[in-house]
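Curious: explain these tokens?
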Amino acid sequence: MRAVIQRVKNARVVVEGVTISEIDSGLLVLLGVTHIDEQSDIDWLSKKILNLRIFNDENGVMNKSLLEVGEDLIVVSQFTLYAATKKGNRPSYITAAKPEVANELYERFVVACEQQLGKKVGTGVFGADMKVSLLNDGPVTISIDTHNKE
């Protein structure tokens, strides 16, 4: 799994002119799923994201996690995170999981986050043409790959 995590002042997902999810402050996570992902990737990544100390403490130091500050989360599925661009100019998405597999793992990831946060997580609509808007806070943007843990 690949995730792009953005600390936001606000974020919104719109599908066909309808707001599907909206938060004030918290995290917006774009999530890509590959064909070799499994439950262990979900468990590791959800825990890692929710515990990342990327929110400011009382001294203005990034020292608190989403779990500690109690802010909100939106997770949006994005297969293009697995774009291969080595050859030519047209990206290949061959390593992205097939839609039925990706959707199941995406939904399980959202549930894992909800269980750990103890509240509803905002989402997009899997496979839809979504308009995602955000105001990045910091800016703080972190990318994580469960198969390349750095």
